[in-house]
Design a protein that fits this description.
Elements (H helix, E strand, L loop, with lengths): L3 E5 L2 E7 L2 E4 L9 E4 L2 H7 L4 H8 L9 E8 L6 E8 L4 E2 L11 E10 H4 L3 H11 L15 H7 L1 H6 L5 H5 L17 H8 L11 E10 L2 H7 L5 E8 L2 H18 L1 H6 L8 E2 L3 H36 L10 E6 L1 E10 L2 E10 L2 E2 L10 H4 L4 E5 L6 E6 L3 H4 L3 E2 L9 H7 L2 H12 L2 E4 L2 H6 L8 H11 L2 E14 L1
Parallel strand pairs: 4-5, 19-20
Antiparallel strand pairs: 1-2, 2-3, 3-4, 5-6, 6-14, 7-11, 8-10, 8-12, 9-10, 9-20, 13-14, 15-18, 16-17, 17-20
Helix pairs in contact: 4-12, 5-12, 8-10, 10-12
The protein binds one DNA strand of 6 nucleotides through helix 10.
Length: about 475
Amino acid sequence: MTTKTIEIGEFTLKRVQEYVWEMPQEGDMRVPARVLASEELLSEIKEDKTLTQLHNTTQLPGIQEYALCMPDGHQGYGFPVGGVAGIDAEDGCISPGAVGYDINCGVRMVKTNLRYEDIQGTEEDLVNALFANVPTGLGGGGVVNNAPVEEILERGVEWAVEEGYGVETDLAHCEDEGFRAEADATAVSQKAKDRGRNQAGSLGSGNHFLEVQRVTDIYDDNVAAEFGLSKDQIVVLIHCGSRGLGHQVCTDYLRDIEQTHEGLLNQLPDKELAAAPAGSRLAEEYYRAMCGAINFAWTNRQLITHQTRQVFERVFDRSWQEMEMELLYDVSHNIAKKELHTIDGEQKELFVHRKGATRAFPAGRPELPPAYRDVGQPVIIPGSMGAGSYILRGGEQSLDETFGSTAHGAGRLMSRTQAKSEYWGEDVMDDLREQNQIYVKAESGATVAEEAPGVYKDIDDVVTVSDTLGIGDKVARTYPVCNIKG
DNA sequence: ATGTGC
């Protein structure tokens, strides 16, 4: 491979290896930045403010090694979606904008023992039953209304299991066992709690969805067998977050941090990067509130899992246990977490910020549950509703290259406004049904237009970068059967 | 993403 340099606006990116572009450290940058992308993906990334935001990110106090942009990166609030930053948890800072407004937005995959032929012909019944039983769209209305928010914030999925919305084995198949112990409900404002109270068990809007899929390709027979995945198997993917509660937590702390830590803010190139110094009262409080919102989001996905199991029981007339509707895994893609990483040969505690990036720990990491400790964690990467998704396995290189992270999805190609000017929801749904036998049911046609397959990058290209770099290895691919949205 | 704004 020849060395190559690309000039993009004010930035010079040097290709340091295939799919790795480095922005050298200069000026006020504390570390260099790296974009992991093919030339094609880079040409899409350069179209918005992603590179400027990535450059800004390198100025966060305590940032280690590199500011990173995953192959699905695009611009976000202050910090790119698809951004990863490992920041010293003792001397650095924590930044709400580097976690995102939708705290613990993430995906979980529920397996079944059904084959594609078992459900052909029932797609419309299934999509209607799912739509009728899983709350979708903006505003209130959840599986549980007037929910005990404080308890959910502090106990996470364990609360749901205790209430009969899941089983013990669900806990072991969720990142962090569906629970962050540092959560503190008293750090979450009354307004945030009030917004969450009637949203426990609701999909929301935007890119969130519940999709029934079939496994179409297996790339690694051994790992797929460990994960319990096989060709033509039916699986369910649930993509949603912490709804208005997490959004309010982000809003509350951004405002407070901007005012309280104005000195630090003035040193940063973008107000949207507002950060609280490690060890400060607000850093601690934000972390505890964020962990609460994380627990709420996991519980949200657990309640939706419960509804999904019930719908399958009615449509296929047998128990969910009989259909082996066990969780593969639940992964977050908007979080910060204290993790130990090796920096210059020494173990260091970092706030790893992953915003639109998925943890991708390889075999051996102590955080992994017993089922995956010897194989590496399942990483679930959802594509657009016309494309299907990937299941990867945390790669051996991820700890060295990306603080144990990879991409989180296809990544948007255009704004929601632009999408609505190019697509009409009803047409998108008709095309998917007639040309691809994909059945979509949505609360709002506008949302379908905003999420049309053509609005997204090619998920295959994104995953190729992850697989080639060894940060997340291809295990299996799925294709949509039916999809419900907000 | 979001009871989609200062």
